[in-house]
């Protein structure tokens, strides 16, 4: 049976005499999660898919851990498992598989058996490659998290060899694969100063060994290969991508040589972890294979040793248990928030390539380390900042892991309802593409409103995203059909949101770079030790708008930073374009960034409108990320390395999302100034990713609109923009003339959110109404809809996340506006919950945009209808936070209709004032 629970007290270690001699044991007081005491019926004793344990097991709180352990049970861990007991602390979660139950002095107890596995913090999904680092030295694991994978030649060739390996498994020709893969990485090779020819030669040397080996057992039927498999383990708390699976067993590829008979230990560890996951999903693995690509390329006269590239090893039970204990050490360290010192392992610092980095990081962050420290520790405030944000980012990582957890905790229907999956796909075909990848096509059973977008990376599966045939795939098209591209021909029946840790990984690196590599002057600003300085400029940049003019002057003249606060429709994008134009004139190199691709593209469009030469611009992003009409600005990565690198380095303006700013390629670039739009939607470390690359920075945003998108409630919710606007009011300018809304529409948001400072930019803006639109006449509307702002009282139907009555009234309203001559494309409907969005979508024509506020930020419409879904006594603001309602109310240009239950809305002071305005 499987036992799962929370550790509620100190662990007792003992040695006892048994018939088999002296044995170690650890007694762990555990409060069992609901349902675990029931005898486990499943044959393999692992899967207890119990949804109810969620709340009890996923949140560890001090309160829980401190509760008197009246209902605690003793779980005894025998033998080597005492090593895992050693890392346990109260509050941590514990799982024992195949445990035995025992009655002892009238109490039920549990103990490990010879078939048991012990898992610490199973909901923390440790990455398999992280365990490989950890086994070399725990400190190496930590350093890798902080500094990420740099752009260097071994990393790039390693990736290329892996890609070619995958291609060979898919039956591609070696030369064709090498040529194509090298071409795809032209930009990276160019940045490293490598030629395509020499890189191809290096890859070929490595790949020849693989090819030779594959030839021997040539991809026969019974060999049953597949390349790259995403593996996730619910029981063992592991995830990773195995290089290949052959006859159900893991094969790992290592670019390098190994002349011993046995695989390297750390490589075995990695393969063994994949084997554990494969066993969980029903496999039975007795061997693992490591493939050392350099072995057969060696000159046989010079080297002696075992030259076979492929080395098999037997996957003993002892090894599997050992690697799981390693995994447990990582999970426990992350849960307790400690930093490894390197003393945990017996690695020799003298031989370590990372020794210098290790010493510098220890010195700067004042951490104990086996290698010793060099350099001066950061000031107290910076150390504190680092620790707080490190913890906050790790909390965010746990939220990502929780998303993984939902893959097995939720039923397919629940996931579909939550917009986390499309589950009713009917597989149509898998078509092989040039280059060995696959195009997968499936038909949708219903038109759900899942959050998926074209270009998203998703988990495509045969219906079982964990344990079944699943692969990462990219959405190429999404209408009544779903078209995906993937490495494997999965018979796709379902797609799920892929919980990526890339963002969290990059946040940590950005934090590290900002504090440890950051310019001192910038840190003085970030740590509020110095006032930002400005060069005084006499030029006029914008003749018809004083605030914009001042903003451009600040942006251009900033020696450290400038902050442009732009309420809705006040010409943020216009001001950015003017600023960039002026910076280009001065010969500066500019990084133009924003949280979303959409905002980056909007800014670029404005630059083109302002007459900036497109040849000066390089847009860094994927093909699906960049708007189709701006593809000509996109930096091509494929081709000739020299040409590609010149295209990037000669570009005076480089535009990319902040996430992309953290990529290996962008991290090699430097700029005079970084200009970041949507800065109020970025976390602090998210903003660092862009500003780390430049001498000075300009942040543009509005902290009264949407806050940073984060799952955890912690430091990350306040943007750097907001913090700096408050700290340095003199470095900021608020744009106060809006070019969007009729005066009536603007009145309430201006008063409520901008101290009444927002005004129409021109009389024409102030007086715009629907009558200005071709073929539209307000007189054709019912009298109570003619005002630019109106309210429709619909008593709520009592449901929490939907309101069918409101949805029906909205459908009627849309007909009314259409009858008055309005195009359906000019109407937008905003609802607070996805469920209500679906409810409304079912009733209105498809060309009316219906969405949540988050999707509307940054856009505008002629007419906006807001559905409030408010009922009862409003136990919290409906749009979660007033910033969301501000966004909702400021989208329309000419008409705004609020639909909701007046009585419920009036119970909240802000909504009451809103109703007073709408009804006045
Ligand atoms: N100084 C100006 N003179 C004339 N037109 C302007 C000026 N500033 C902005 N505009 C116009 O006002 C409109 C809104 O400007 P812009 O798109 O820059 O606003 P924004 O603040 O970026 O909007 P959002 O709040 O949606 O991000 C655009 O059509 C723009 O051309």
From TrEMBL:
EC number: 3.6.4.12
CDD domains in UniProt: SF1_C_Upf1
Keyword Magnesium applies: no
Occurrences of domain DNA replication factor Dna2 N-terminal (ranges): 71-223
Chain ranges of the DNA2/NAM7 helicase helicase domain: 545-637, 646-712
GO molecular function, one term: 5'-3' DNA helicase activity
Comp. bias intervals (Low complexity): 36-46
Lineage top rank: taxon: Archaea
Top-level EC class: hydrolase
Alphabetical GO biological process terms: DNA repair; DNA replication
Region (Disordered), start-end ranges: 36-67
Ligase as UniProt keyword: no
Domain called DNA2/NAM7 helicase-like C-terminal: residue spans: 718-902
Cofactor list: [4Fe-4S] cluster
Keyword set, alphabetical order: 4Fe-4S, ATP-binding, DNA damage, DNA repair, DNA replication, DNA-binding, Helicase, Hydrolase, Iron, Iron-sulfur, Metal-binding, Multifunctional enzyme, Nuclease, Nucleotide-binding
Family annotation (InterPro entries): Coronavir_polyprotein_1ab, DNA2/NAM7-like_C, DNA2/NAM7_AAA_11, DNA_replication_fac_Dna2_N, P-loop_NTPase, PDDEXK-like_dom_sf, SF1_C_Upf1
Catalytic activity: ATP + H2O = ADP + phosphate + H(+)
Family listed: Belongs to the DNA2/NAM7 helicase family.
Protein's UniProt name: DNA helicase
